[in-house]
Amino acid sequence: MPQIDLYIAVLLEFLAASVLLERILEFFDKILSLIGLGMGRKAQLLRLADIDLNTSVQTDRLIKKAFIMQTAGIILGIGICYFSQLGLLRALKLIAPEPLQWWDVLLSGILISGGSEPIHQLINFLKGHQEALKEEKERLQTQITQVNPQVQSLPGSRIGITYQGGLYPDKPGHGLRKANPQYIVIHHSGTSTSASFEDIVRMEQKERHNAKGSYKLDPSFHSVITYDGQYHHYCRWDSVGWHVAKGTRVSNANSLGLCFVGNFQSRRKDVPDLKNKPSEAQLETGARLIALWRLLYNIPEQNIVAHSTVQRGRILCPGDNFPMERLVAKSTQILKSWQNDALIMEDIERFKKQRFIYV
Ligand SMILES: [Zn+2]
């Protein structure tokens, strides 16, 4: 494409030169006619082939005139090219730009001596080719965008959460579930808010070793949300995680574990630590993920629970500064807005058809 643009630009330059040459020849033609050397239309005189040999008694004189005109045209063409430093091959970048080659000037002179018509035709041909290329490119582009929505827009891209089985898609965590989850348990990581997902995985992997191989995989949450608001899927949603001790209602077998990175417990019980809370971005992503899970598994609002409320014993997870109620309310709000949006619900229907979601 850029090459064709270059050709056209170069030819336009030559077109200008050939038009100049034509004007000069026209003048020359008039002078020749004045001194009585044949008559005729300019187009006939410019090219020998255009002359009809049988029609005129003046044929000899016409040929003579055409020959003079053509020779003059070539000499003039070469002259124009020489003085304006026009070299066709060097302009097309087919030969080195410096120095200007005499044969390139000769060739260019012959080209423009043919008049502007052949150059016009060449330009038109290239423009046609350029249009065809452009159309082809556009056709390819629409083809790509027609194919790409399926590649690019993975299920969940409308809601901003995609899922492909978490960290170990080929391994079903601590065994596959016997039934789909009914609860969502909220945790904090108990670490610094700056901990990355990798840090959380390392921490969990350490626990696996402490347990002397009793876990097949890392004891884990189903998803983790870092302080920057990014979600990270950890163990498969259709598998049993390892985030809560078995209680009367809630257990690993019937719940999903969602971990917010940070420690949201006040350091001193008597002085609430107001700075110690999850980021808004974290809560926003958390609420969206909870809304998605509620839609996927039909989990009622009251079944979104804090770790500390479902496990006996003194559990400080997700911490007394964690805005549990606000998170749940936010997820309900999001869920309702999604249910009113046909495109999002369509997206969620596609989401449901993916692997690693249902037992
Ligand atoms: Zn916890």
Polypeptide structure, described:
The protein folds into two domains: 2-123, no CATH class; 183-352, Peptidoglycan recognition protein-like (Lysozyme-like). The chain has eleven helices and five strands, in the order ααααααβαβββαβααα. The relative contact order is 0.10. Residues 46-50 have low confidence and may be disordered. A hairpin with a 5-residue loop joins strand 2 (223-225) and strand 3 (231-233). It is mostly helical. The structure holds zinc ion. Zinc ion is lined by residues 187, 307, 317.
Ligand identities:
zinc ion
**What would CATH call the homologous superfamily of the largest domain?**
Peptidoglycan recognition protein-like
Strand order of the largest sheet: 3-2-4-1-5
Rg from alpha-carbon coordinates: 40 Å
- Give the helix/strand class: mainly alpha
Total strand segments: 5
Output the number of helix runs. Answer: 11
Domain count: 2
Describe how the helices and strands are arranged.
Elements: H1 2-34, H2 42-46, H3 59-83, H4 88-91, H5 102-113, H6 116-152, E1 183-188, H7 197-210, E2 223-225, E3 231-233, E4 255-260, H8 280-297, E5 304-306, H9 307-310, H10 324-339, H11 342-352
Parallel strand pairs: 1-4, 1-5, 2-4
Antiparallel strand pairs: 2-3
The chain binds zinc ion.
Zinc ion binds next to loops.
